[in-house]
């Protein structure tokens, strides 16, 4: 790889999670290409602004591409050379002139149920509860360690803005309730620890891990930005399939940039790339985006790809298929066709 005096600019969002992912890519770039210069370029996206603005109204999903558009503009105008995305945020149809150059090794794809500890919050004096309490107001409800979706009490309120998560939970537990929740991960955890308007939330395990949060054997969620008294339970895939691309980091580049294509070829993790390609082909064939009520998970099994998916577009439909690892698009389209077929 030739040396260059000009640094290769890696565009990223400015959230804590986006920065953690970008630094992981930056470190991989520097280790793989020690003679090249790489620098981060932080860009605020429309999606970042809407998450905290009044436009992010309850019940209204953020349109696709809001977390990627400004990064892609920077690529197209030559103000950046690589854009790092949570792959679940990257639309399946990219703007002309751009391509998905690489996908790094995937983290754990599972989701995590996060809730308050009954013992911790019951032990706090009323005046020390982190909400303003008035007579008749509900206290902060908590649960025992290792609580799962299956044993939450009826009426439990789960805060999530994901239609995919809501649909799967409703199919499993129609007696639970939902409310909207936006913001970065630390903000969501702080709201859970201080607001009695909901009892639990669900976040991706990959994001928690990249922020250096951990789940102890006793079920406690710990980390520098984690409020005291929060518990967590990892949800198995047979209860909660992830969204397309969850746990994977995508690197977007200009389609005509041969130098960056060569760099990305060294950064790409083949098995992860083939798996997420199958998932993205499935989502594209279903005609949906990241907020569609569909979920899918592909994994390499004995040098083949296995793709499991669920759709709530027309009732609850599930499908599963296995195909050759070298043809992930056909596998994704096959599973989509199964789900769209008339029962």
Automatic annotation (TrEMBL):
Domain Porphobilinogen deaminase C-terminal stretches: 274-340
Porphobilinogen deaminase N-terminal domain mapped to chain residues: 8-261
Highest taxon, organism lineage: Bacteria
EC number per UniProt: 2.5.1.61
Record keywords, A-Z: Porphyrin biosynthesis, Transferase
Gene3D superfamilies in the cross-refs: Periplasmic binding protein-like II (3.40.190.10), Porphobilinogen deaminase, C-terminal domain (3.30.160.40)
GO molecular function, one term: hydroxymethylbilane synthase activity
Enzyme class: transferase
Keyword Transferase listed: yes
Catalyzed reactions per annotation: 4 porphobilinogen + H2O = hydroxymethylbilane + 4 NH4(+)
Cofactor section: dipyrromethane
Coiled coil: none
Cofactor stoichiometry and binding remark: Binds 1 dipyrromethane group covalently.
Family affiliation: Belongs to the HMBS family.
Entry function: Tetrapolymerization of the monopyrrole PBG into the hydroxymethylbilane pre-uroporphyrinogen in several discrete steps.
Complex and partners: Monomer.
Protein name, per record: Porphobilinogen deaminase
Gene assigned in the entry: hemC
